[in-house]
Amino acid sequence: MDFLSPVLDGFGVVFQPDNLLYCLLGVTLGMLVGVLPGLGPAATIAILLPITYNIEPTSAIIMLAGIFYGAQYGGTITSVLLRLPGEASSVVTAIDGHEMARQGRAGAALGIAAIGSFIGGTIAIVALTFVAPLVSGFAIDFGPAEYTMLALLGILLVTTLGTGSIFKSLAMATLGLLLATIGQDPLLGTARLTFGSDQLLDGIDFVIVAMGLFGVGEILYNLEALRKKAPKAAPVGSVYPTRKDFSESKGAIARGSLSGFLLGILPGGGATMSSMVAYAVEKKATKRPEKFGRGAIQGVAGPETANNAAATSSFIPLLSLGIPANATMAIMFGALMLQGITPGPLLVEEEPQLFWGVVNSMYIGNLLLLAMSLPLIGIFVRILKVRAAILAPLTILITMIGVYTVRNNVFDMYLVIGLGLLGYLMKKVGFEPGPLVLAFVLGGILESAFRRSMRTFDGELSGFLGEPIAASLLGAIVLLILLSVLRAVRSRNKATQNKENKNSDVTPAEREPEDGAEQRDRDPAEHP
Amino acid sequence: MTTPDQEQEARPSESYARRQNVIAASVLFVVGAGAALLSWQLGIGDLADPGPGMWPLIVSVAMAVIAVVLVVRSAPTGEEERFGRESLVVAAGVVSLLGYVFLFERVGFEIPTVALLVLWLKLLGRESWLMTAIVSLSATTAIYLLFITGLGVSLPHIVHF
């Protein structure tokens, strides 16, 4: 089979000792940042971007990918043991996972999460192997009109499907697009919005934006809680689930793999949303919904499987269309560009070694993570004791020096501090940095695609309707906007209703799943 | 990620959150409007042959419009947090970072790095002196070895081997 030979060649790339080492390094780092609350995978990848300059492209991406899916495994540990989700994608796991830990079943929760993650991740890699080249093949003839719509749809999906307020996310997306215009006009070379500064003439480097908003921003935000003592972790016990645990969660793992894979492909979907959807699905599928919130193993198995499947499948739009599906993928996009590789439909043809090397490395990475999450879990649980007060100054230093090494330029360091401050303020006021970073990345693509299509269409906006694929993407955009408006109106009605009977009880089931953990704490009486 | 307890502490009152939202949206509006003006001055051309200002103008007008919507819909979304005494730690952090960069170029990275670590560990983090000394000295050495010796990056430095 012709199709399979580059796939098999990819294994040759993976089994080079260097790449195995980078894969191990990546997943270990991912596991670590997953365990350590505060620094997420996006921030970690952003901080490490300058270091990847010096590494061979395939190895670099193998490592960064490892950090991303490794963090999905690690995030579970703090969710279960401390009810303190290390990652947003493990927030729902905390609900039943921590309840299991309180009943002395922490080990079973962690074990089933690790096994579910492994199965979900592996199924998603297999599916990715077949789907990604298919999408690439379909997208290979995309012109500027299609890319305009695709980039626009990507930004809109991320803002509307994200966790925060739609308008706040939209505002951040436009800010990202605006920041992307700083520097020389891509076609004419005119200096735009540089305020006469030569330093800004080349535009703001993507690395600086990612490191500032995610890296420095998160570190500053966590400074507020620096002196707080770390809560005590629940004891783990045996991590090997029993036969009963397996039979109870096998359905959840199967459903989680499927929903996670599908939602991961969707821009704006990704790990966080798929874990929430999986939780809701399991609650609907079970015959005993009353067990949810009181230590139901399906409530751990479903979301944890789904977030890993989604983490893997979110590579599809990036590697086959060149459109990042979420903020972390936007940073991956930046990492590829740094290496001189443009992700897109041509990638699988032009860089088969890189493409299949990275994809196949995920099998190894997931195996390594399974080992780390079962027999080696004790090591990672011990890391929970590392104090934030020691970690924060070390990460900020690596960030600052890393920024300097990008261009050997002190101006970039000031810029990253400024963007870090912006990131901190945004978090305090309830704005997500994700849409900004994603829009910043897509800004360049969107502008040049839009301008080139306008030239072909002779300035007629209706030209987009003449291209069947672009037109259907436009239709999707219109549909999406209509749906969001509808949702906004409905939530507004709900809000006024809630105001009217303010003191009436809102059951956790009626709340968004992301509020679950917090809600439970406020109403302990509801869960005796 | 914060714990639920911290979240509850940080939750502002409704009027506080609303005021915060209006201020944030107004800042966005001013930035959007300002950028629109600057883009206009760059020359926008027409759709068939866009000038350098066309795209920034579209983006900044969109931003200003969304900012207006945000002013109108300023009801708290539940994601706002109040600024309190602990925010001063962040201010101190930012100032120390600016000082770090200022000195970085002038006296090499070693002394500012140790100083920044001592400041963050001891003053911001309230670690013990022993811990502060161990971490700051070993971290500075590790950075030297990683970036200068290992990766061969040309950091400004005063210690030469």
TrEMBL record, chain A:
<feature type="transmembrane region" description="Helical">
    <location>
        <begin position="108"/>
        <end position="135"/>
    </location>
</feature>
<feature type="transmembrane region" description="Helical">
    <location>
        <begin position="20"/>
        <end position="49"/>
    </location>
</feature>
<dbReference type="InterPro" id="IPR002823">
    <property type="entry name" value="DUF112_TM"/>
</dbReference>
<keyword id="KW-1133">Transmembrane helix</keyword>
<feature type="region of interest" description="Disordered">
    <location>
        <begin position="494"/>
        <end position="528"/>
    </location>
</feature>
<feature type="compositionally biased region" description="Basic and acidic residues">
    <location>
        <begin position="517"/>
        <end position="528"/>
    </location>
</feature>
<feature type="transmembrane region" description="Helical">
    <location>
        <begin position="170"/>
        <end position="188"/>
    </location>
</feature>
<feature type="compositionally biased region" description="Basic and acidic residues">
    <location>
        <begin position="497"/>
        <end position="511"/>
    </location>
</feature>
<feature type="transmembrane region" description="Helical">
    <location>
        <begin position="318"/>
        <end position="341"/>
    </location>
</feature>
<dbReference type="Pfam" id="PF01970">
    <property type="entry name" value="TctA"/>
</dbReference>
<feature type="transmembrane region" description="Helical">
    <location>
        <begin position="200"/>
        <end position="221"/>
    </location>
</feature>
<feature type="domain" description="DUF112">
    <location>
        <begin position="20"/>
        <end position="438"/>
    </location>
</feature>
<feature type="transmembrane region" description="Helical">
    <location>
        <begin position="361"/>
        <end position="381"/>
    </location>
</feature>
<feature type="transmembrane region" description="Helical">
    <location>
        <begin position="147"/>
        <end position="164"/>
    </location>
</feature>
<protein>
    <submittedName>
        <fullName>Tripartite tricarboxylate transporter permease</fullName>
    </submittedName>
</protein>
<keyword id="KW-0812">Transmembrane</keyword>
<feature type="transmembrane region" description="Helical">
    <location>
        <begin position="470"/>
        <end position="489"/>
    </location>
</feature>
<keyword id="KW-0472">Membrane</keyword>
<feature type="transmembrane region" description="Helical">
    <location>
        <begin position="388"/>
        <end position="404"/>
    </location>
</feature>
UniProtKB/TrEMBL annotation, chain B:
<keyword id="KW-0472">Membrane</keyword>
<keyword id="KW-1133">Transmembrane helix</keyword>
<feature type="domain" description="DUF1468">
    <location>
        <begin position="23"/>
        <end position="156"/>
    </location>
</feature>
<feature type="transmembrane region" description="Helical">
    <location>
        <begin position="21"/>
        <end position="42"/>
    </location>
</feature>
<dbReference type="Pfam" id="PF07331">
    <property type="entry name" value="TctB"/>
</dbReference>
<protein>
    <submittedName>
        <fullName>Tripartite tricarboxylate transporter TctB family protein</fullName>
    </submittedName>
</protein>
<dbReference type="InterPro" id="IPR009936">
    <property type="entry name" value="DUF1468"/>
</dbReference>
<keyword id="KW-0812">Transmembrane</keyword>
<feature type="transmembrane region" description="Helical">
    <location>
        <begin position="87"/>
        <end position="109"/>
    </location>
</feature>
<feature type="transmembrane region" description="Helical">
    <location>
        <begin position="54"/>
        <end position="75"/>
    </location>
</feature>
<feature type="transmembrane region" description="Helical">
    <location>
        <begin position="129"/>
        <end position="155"/>
    </location>
</feature>
